[in-house]
Amino acid sequence: MEPLLMPWILQQKRKASNNNMLECSAAKRKRQIILERPQFRLISFCTWDLAEPTRLILTYAGIDFEDINYENYKFYEPDVSPAEFPLLNYNGKILRENDAIARMLAKMYGLAGNGFFEQAQVDSIVAIVKDLYAATLPYFEDVLGFKVTDTEKIFKEIFKPAVLQHCTKLEKYALKLSNSGFLFDSGITYADFSVSYMVQAINSIHPELMSKFPNILLLSQRVFALPQLQFYISTRPGKQDALFEKMKRELYSSDKKCLTEIFDN
To answer: Where is the GST C-terminal domain (predicted)?
Structure first.
């Protein structure tokens, strides 16, 4: 063997050895990623509830998850109260509070906003939606038959003022020009999902109220037109739409177009 080639041969052997070590290390990291892939079980009251933005986050991110409602979950945990929902079982650990669940998942999958200030703005919008949900919940509970109250009084004194107040705030955010077509220039965030979910719910039973807020209506249409959500929307459980149908039957009589007309006349 030519002695002059010895240094080159040794160098090639070292390179091959290093490459093998890198490949082994990369394969090991890949196996770790696969083994550490998070497992999610979402437990909520029904298939259309406060946990819907969480479902949208996971679906948009392409993450598989188990969607378990109260009727099924109580067979495993008979003492659990529906007041505790939604819950997220994350790799065997239980996380409560809907906002905390959605915020964690948004951060995990890049849907929490870009930078500290934008993230704070995203959280502030989600807080408005939370206030809107809390204010309108008594009305939804009455319409769906969970509680018996004075529907007309709740609508006029609580539901309608709350919708107008909070949707006016959300409309101001949606009025601002965004390069992404969503609430923020950086792209879609979990605030878009939260707003769209609530807008869809209210618009399904009171379109006459939501017609005053064209920008958040348009935002909702954009969100639910996302290609990543189409399969989920087309296959989500029928109870979701059944709830809206029940609301409509309860609210709309054959001779009136909407509850607003009934109460305002």
So the answer is: 115-251
Integer Cα distance of 133 and 154 in angstroms: 14
Distance in angstroms (rounded) separating the CA atoms of residues 105 and 59: 11
* Sequence letter at residue 145: G
Q: Mapping DSSP to helix (H, G, I), strand (E, B) and coil, where does residue 100 land?
A: helix
Q: Which residue has the tokens 């101001």?
A: 172
Q: Would you say the C-alpha torsion 221, 227, 231, 234 has a positive or negative sign?
A: positive
SS3 (DSSP) at 20 = helix
* Tokens standing for residue 108: 């995990």
pTM, two decimals, is: 0.75
Q: pLDDT tens, 144-199?
A: 777 777 888 999 999 999 999 999 999 999 998 788 999 999 999 999 999 999 99
**Helical (H) or strand (E) element with 89:** strand 87-90
Going along the chain from its start, the domains and CATH numbers come out as 40-108 (3.40.30.10), 115-264 (1.20.1050.10)
User: What is d(CA 201, CA 140) in angstroms, rounded to the nearest whole number?
Assistant: 10
**Cα 5 versus chain centre, distance:** 64
